[in-house]
Write a structure and sequence with these properties.
Blueprint lengths: L6 H9 L7 H10 L6 H9 L2 H11 L13 H8 L1 H16 L7 H20 L6 H10 L3 H8 L3 H11 L5 H8 L3 H11 L4 H9 L6 H4 L4 H22 L5 H14 L3 H21 L1
Length: 286
């Protein structure tokens, strides 16, 4: 699935500042491409960025990923988790660190962190352990276009507040009308530049235009699994923030999602309870 950009939209996107991957992440990516990547080299690259390595250790030792013993060093984290697990986590925390940290976006980032924790919990409840790390990265990364839009458009903060409260599915057309592009498109382009898996790029791009995706054959099974995990996570966090499960975004996706996952209403309720517990535990740690 390709990102479709109009000529007018391309002009807007070319003028928008998209953060590059940090040096440490470039070194990790270069080493990971090799036939026999060196764990010590990758650990050294991560450790060379103090803020990045501290953030990675915080995530690895969080409730979502906690092991029997605390992980005390990046070397230990890379050895215990392996490259396939550690690299998505490094990318996720590096992205947040690359963004402008405006106080006005503090609630946005708190919500993304909650959605990331919720996504891990949903993946566990759906018995999809192979997707846990990508679910976390997607939860943190899925709305990465928002802070870029915020940084480039002065009035975006007020628009963001309304869209977060009422649901993005109601505001996507208005966003495109106002800014000639959307945070979903910007986020997908960022994900491409940061070399995220294609499955994640698909979900980021189509997150708020998901009608028919479960039956169209346009997305592969892993993309649909990640989309489903993220939608449930967003629904739970929306309930925790606004006291309501029935957002327009959820209503637009609920029936095909439950059919795809073969979830009854009671199954979904049980998952929600477990996910709320996981998110509350995450909040206690932060």
């Amino acid at each position: 699935m390709a990102i479709n950009i109009t000529p007018a939209e391309k002009m807007i996107i070319d003028s928008v500042s998209i953060p590059p991957r940090p040096e440490a992440l470039l070194k990790v990516a270069d080493e990971a491409k090799k036939e026999e990547p060196s764990i010590p080299v990758i650990a050294k690259a991560i450790s060379s960025d103090i803020s990045l390595s501290a953030a990675v250790l915080q995530v690895v030792n969080s409730a979502a990923f906690r092991r029997m013993r605390e992980v005390e060093s990046i070397d230990q984290a890379v050895i215990l988790l392996g490259l396939k697990r550690i690299i998505p986590l490094v990318k996720a925390v590096a992205l947040k660190g690359s963004m402008t940290q405006s106080a006005k976006l503090s609630n946005f980032w708190q919500s993304c962190e909650a959605i990331a924790a919720a996504s891990v919990a949903v993946a566990k409840e759906l018995r999809k352990p192979a997707l846990i790390d990508h679910a976390y990265m997607l939860g943190l990364f899925h709305a990465a276009g928002v802070p870029i839009m915020f940084q480039n458009y002065r009035d975006y903060g007020g628009f963001l507040e309304l869209a977060e409260r009422d649901g993005w599915d109601n505001y996507l057309e208005e966003e495109i009308k106002r800014y000639q592009t959307s945070h979903s498109t910007i986020g997908a382009i960022l994900a491409e530049k940061w070399m995220l898996p294609q499955e994640m790029i698909n979900v980021i791009y189509y997150l708020h235009e998901a009608d028919g995706l479960y039956t169209s054959g346009e997305m592969d099974a892993e993309s649909l699994d990640l989309l489903s995990i993220l939608k449930i996570a967003r629904n739970v966090v929306h309930f925790m923030e606004y006291g309501d499960y029935e957002s327009q975004e959820w209503e637009n996706i609920r029936e095909p999602l439950q059919d795809y996952l073969d979830l009854s209403d009671s199954d979904l309720d049980e998952i929600r309870v477990k996910v709320i517990e996981a998110v509350n535990l995450h909040k206690e740690e932060h």
